[in-house]
Amino acid sequence: MERKLLEIKGLKTYFYTDEGVVAAVDGVDISIRAGETVGIVGESGSGKSVTSLTAMRLTPGKVVEGSITFDGKEILGLSEEEMREIRGNEMAMIFQEPMTSLNPVFTIGDQIGEAVRIHRNYSKAQARARAVEMLKLVGIPRAEQIVDEYPHRLSGGMRQRVMIAMAMACDPKLLIADEPTTALDVTIQAQILDLMSELKASKGTAILLITHDLGVVAEMCDRVVVMYDGRVVEESDVVTLFTHPRHPYTQGLMKSMPTLDSEEKRLYSIKGSVPAQGSLRIGCSFAPRCEHAMAICREQSPPLQEIELGHFSRCFLHASAEGRTGHEPAVH
Amino acid sequence: MSDTDVSVQVATQAAEVSYQRRSPWASMLRRFRKNKRALVGFWMVVVFVGIAVFAQAIAPYDPIEQNMDVILQPPSADHLFGTDEYGRDILSRIIYGSQISLMIGIVGVLISVVIGVGLGTVSGYFGGRTDMFIMRIMDIFMAFPSFLLALAIVSVLGPGMVNVMIAIGIFSVPTFARISRSAVISVKNKEFIEAAKSMGASHARVIFKHVLPNSVAPIIVLSTMRIATAILTASGLSFLGMGAQPPTPEWGAMLSTGREYLRTAPHVSTIPGLAIMFMVLAFNMLGDGLRDALDPKMKL
Amino acid sequence: MLGYIAKRLLQMIPTLIGVSILCFIIIHSVPGDPANLIAGVDATAEEIQIVKERLGLDRPLYEQYGSYVMGLLQGDMGKSLRSDRPVAEELLTRFPSTIMLTMLSVVVMVLVGLFAGIMSAIRPNSMRDNATMMVSLFGISMPVFWSGIMLILVFSYYLQWLPSGGSTQLKHYILPAIALGLSSSAVLARLTRSSILEVIHQDFIRTARAKGVREKLIIYKHTLKNALIPIITIVGLEFGHLLGGAVLTETVFSMNGIGRYIIQSIQFRDYPAIQGSILFVAAIFVIVNLVVDLCYGAVDPRIRYD
């Protein structure tokens, strides 16, 4: 087995607000091998973005417990200076909003070249050349001109390409992509995803892809982690997850996906909504919305179990006689 | 219409009213109470108003009566803030002076609120040429450095308290006109305004019932801050001899005469300056706090 | 760019016309007849008539305004009643002193205000931030004539480091510029702080952090350049306050500038001088606003001049 590039263990990130403590991430384990693409899926408020920001040590919240090792180093123990050397260099990140994620008062070239100037001590000219090279790599036409333009002259899709160029400038080992396509038009989404796949293939970069879109997961990922209310509820390889989802929440997500051959007129939707963060967790936090909820679900919190090799789920259904009796979900 | 329908309607209306009235003001009050600086400002204003109202009872001496036996004395037990060049008790003059500063500040700002909000509302509500015309004139007023505008007005009207109030009133008009104009424009095209218009409400009714209440918050905040500016400007005019005339115990004028004795009796000009500063500070702190409580994002 | 400047200069004309009309109206709305005031309370009817004719006050208002504007276009602001010399000439001899004072005050304002604002914004709600913001509240509330007097008291009388008045040498300008600049620097500090805090929560700052940019550069490069737009605006507006404040400061420090000239003219009821100098200062302020507009373009690439 390949060594793990990023390993998050028992991570708890809490926010201390005036209204009380919010456990945004509450005991999460995720690992990524070199060159692998792992998706984190969940609704907004499930803690997936906070998890990824914590991996970069950019979260405004406080890490209460857990460990994050990156490339063999425990990064939660690094000094800010050491962490800064990893950011944008070995571990880079792109964000959801390409319209607001670029600094409006600096040129595209300045912003792409900044990473290599910081991490590789490139001269101004070298950084500019690198920026042009990166712009070409991400498929931006007229790269020599665009490099001196300001972000407001570019469309959203182009800006997201610039963001990718910026993140890839130092050839990072891990690229964290937080909802990279959510804010874009459907056709542009596909182009950006294709670009990421190409880059992954040519550079061997591992990708941690945060999304709420199962279609994106199906297209991009090797393995998937499903998060709900600050915890991992299911994890498996992508094929298994789509063919045999085991957690009722994942099953709900699958059912709510539109399919072409669907005869139903209305899309399925999971009742209720993600519980307000900070509310006390007694029992399984999905129980109030779960069709299969049992008495025990409201009293105890289910553990994350390996139900098959490499397939984990956090549900009491699997504990009771393999849980397959009456509840085997019919997908498709 | 049956009885139940009516009662349901009344109940929903009542619920709407209480939702609109109570909840934002209650949360505002809560935020205001949590803001230490605002509370200090509030109580300082209360103290100054108290001093002004009860000046006669508090002041140990007559503010105008001269006593040539005790001229230019430094602070002592008899005269806490010392005496001035005519042997008048500075503490008593400061106490009476608070009446003048407060009055000029508040009346001056009231004048500008009435004129400014009036012009701004008309401008924003009717738009078009009216708007163009009014705002152009406001722009011209804004082209003058504000202190200079006040000075020019007083120089023509002649020195005196009433004229200072008028000058102060005029120089804040453009600020109020702008802020109320933008507040009006931001609500003008909202659905509830359209609804009121379509139900045949007159312009006056729409303005007073629906548009103005929505610009109350920024106007309150701006008024508080402008009182601070007004007091500062008025004291500057008096310092130049354009404001209250002797022997009126006006702080700026006291400071001005005290300059002559700066080497021998610095307290004569120091103390009135402190008084001005603390009163202005009180209104600035209160204004800051109100802004943070009403709408932290307000650009004032 | 040149086209834009030309366009803006053209746009200044209506404002300047408005300003001149307003000045004219203010001066001519003197209760009673200006000629009475000028000639003095105990003047005879003939004396008043002579004054009227001399100043053209017997002609209709629009004619008076017309000849005034014609004069202005030729650089003629009329003659001072006090000295009988051309107002324009008197203003020009005093202009360098006032512009020197205002410029030095701008330097004080920008240095102190930017520094204090940045220091506050780096650690919001810290002791340092609260203390700085409290001090700047005091600064805003302080009458500029009083702070000038206090500076004289300390630095001229007690320490005897600097002169208390005059306007011939650079050392004469130090205390007045500090007095005048500090009150505006308090305004600037507050605005700098709030603009930085507004920018620092934007997405692109997170992007910069994710790139591994050091915190110092995040503030001084990525944040500050974005925060400069409101900062430039306030510097322009404060310039107006400084021009107004110069009236008080020049009086306190006995400086021979336009500000004190205005006061002396008012005391003497020298209406041509009052009118001319107020118009002059307003024109400077209008030009400063134009310069501010041009500065936006240097900072914000989204603004285009065409």
TrEMBL record, chain A:
The keyword Nucleus appears for this protein: no
- The name of this protein is Peptide/nickel transport system ATP-binding protein
The membrane topology term of the UniProt record is: Peripheral membrane protein
Q: Which UniProt keywords apply?
A: ATP-binding, Cell membrane, Membrane, Nucleotide-binding, Transport
Q: Pinpoint the ABC transporter domain residues.
A: 6-254
Q: Which PANTHER family match?
A: DIPEPTIDE TRANSPORT ATP-BINDING PROTEIN DPPD, OLIGOPEPTIDE TRANSPORT ATP-BINDING PROTEIN APPD
CC annotations in GO: plasma membrane
Q: Where in the cell is it found?
A: Cell membrane
Q: Which domain of life is it from?
A: Bacteria
Which InterPro entries does its entry note?
AAA+_ATPase, ABC_Ni/Peptide_Import, ABC_transporter-like_ATP-bd, ABC_transporter-like_CS, Oligopep_ABC_C, P-loop_NTPase
From which organism does this entry originate? Brevibacillus centrosporus
Membrane listed as a keyword? yes
Under the heading NCBIfam families, the entry gives:
oligo_HPY (TIGR01727)
Which biological process terms from the Gene Ontology are attached to this UniProt entry?
Answer: peptide transport
A GO molecular-function annotation? ATP binding
Record family assignment: Belongs to the ABC transporter superfamily.
- Tell me the leader sequence span: none
Listed transmembrane segments: none
Q: What is its main location?
A: membrane
**Gene3D superfamilies membership:** P-loop containing nucleotide triphosphate hydrolases
Automatic annotation (TrEMBL), chain B:
In the bilayer, the protein is annotated as:
Multi-pass membrane protein
- Which GO CC terms are listed, alphabetically? plasma membrane
Q: Which residues cross the membrane?
A: 38-59, 100-126, 219-244, 264-287
Q: Which SUPFAM superfamilies is this protein grouped with?
A: MetI-like
What are the residue boundaries of the ABC transmembrane type-1 domain, all occurrences included? Answer: 98-287
Q: Which family does it belong to?
A: Belongs to the binding-protein-dependent transport system permease family. OppBC subfamily.
This one is known as Peptide/nickel transport system permease protein
Please tell me the species this chain comes from. Answer: Brevibacillus centrosporus
TrEMBL record, chain C:
Q: Where is the ABC transmembrane type-1 domain?
A: 95-296
> Keyword set for this entry?
Cell membrane, Ion transport, Membrane, Nickel, Nickel transport, Transmembrane, Transmembrane helix, Transport
List the Gene3D superfamilies: MetI-like
List cellular component terms (GO). plasma membrane
Which GO molecular function annotations are given, in alphabetical order?
A: nickel cation transmembrane transporter activity
Membrane topology according to the record: Multi-pass membrane protein
Record's SUPFAM superfamilies? MetI-like (SSF161098)
The transmembrane residues are: 12-30, 99-122, 134-158, 170-189, 227-248, 278-299
Q: Where is this chain primarily localised?
A: membrane
Q: How does it assemble?
A: The complex is composed of two ATP-binding proteins (NikD and NikE), two transmembrane proteins (NikB and NikC) and a solute-binding protein (NikA).
Which NCBIfam families does the record cross-reference, listed alphabetically? Opp2B
Q: Which family does it belong to?
A: Belongs to the binding-protein-dependent transport system permease family. OppBC subfamily.
Q: What is this protein called?
A: Nickel import system permease protein NikB
